[in-house]
Amino acid sequence: MNVLAVVHGTDAPPGSFGDVVAERGHRLDTWSIATEPAPPLRADDYGAVLLFGGAMHADEETAHPWLGDERRFIEGVIERGTPLLGVCLGAQLAAQAAGAAVTRMPEPEVGWHEVGLTAEASRDPVLGVLPARFTAFQWHFYGFDVPAGGCELARSPVCPQAFRLGDAVWGVQFHPEVTREIVAA
User: Which residues pair with residue 17 across a beta bridge?
Assistant: First the structure.
C-alpha cells in the first residue's frame, strides 16, 4: 500500500510512523505541503493519509495560504473514505475539514502531559490498545472540538486529545510519532 505523509516543516517529520510503514512493507511518500506543489493525486493513489504537526496554527491562512488548500484536500480524503490519521495540527485541520471548531486554548500544553482515554476508546481499533491513562508528548497552543457525528476517544485536563469520525478518520492532539531525536531537536 502507498501511504501519504503530509508534513508542515522540517521539525515535524513522520518520525516513528515512517518506520512502522516500512516494517509493514508499505511505501511512504512525504509531501512537504508548505514548500512543494501538490503531487498529482487520484483517489486510489494512497491507501492511507497521515497529517503531521507544524509550527503554524490552523487559523493562520493569511500567513500560510496553503492551509485552505490542505483543508480542501482533507475534505476530499474524508469524502472518499480513505483512512486518515491527523496528529496535532493535522488533527486540528481534519476536525476543521469535518466542520468542527479549532481555537486557541486558555493554556498551552508543551512537554509531557497525562492523557486519559474515554470509555468509547476501549472499543476503538486504533486507540483501544493504549492504557486507560498515559503520559504523552504535547506541543500545542490550539485545540479542536470533536466533529459532529464523531466520538471523543481521549482528553487531558485542558482539551480533547483524540477523536474518531466514522470508520476512517482519527485525530490525536498528542504526538505518538516522536522519537528521542525529534524531542531532542
Answer: none
Domain 2-184 maps to which CATH number in 1.10.101.10, 3.40.50.920, 3.40.50.880, 3.40.190.150?
3.40.50.880
What does the chain come to in residues? 185
Give the DSSP letter string of the chain.
-EEEEEESSTTS--THHHHHHHHTT-EEEEEETTTSPPP---TTS-SEEEE---SS-TT-TTT-THHHHHHHHHHHHHHHT--EEEETHHHHHHHHHTT--EEEEEEEEEEEEEEEE-GGGGG-TTGGGS-SEEEEEEEEEEEEPPPTT-EEEEE-SSSEEEEEETTTEEEESS-TT--HHHHH-
Mean pLDDT in consecutive groups of 10 residues from the start of the chain, 185 residues: 89 84 93 77 79 92 91 92 96 97 95 96 95 96 97 96 97 90 76
- In the structure grid, which three cell numbers stand for residue 119, read together? 470509555
pTM over 0.70: yes
Q: What is the rounded distance in angstroms from the CA atom of residue 156 to the CA atom of residue 163?
A: 13
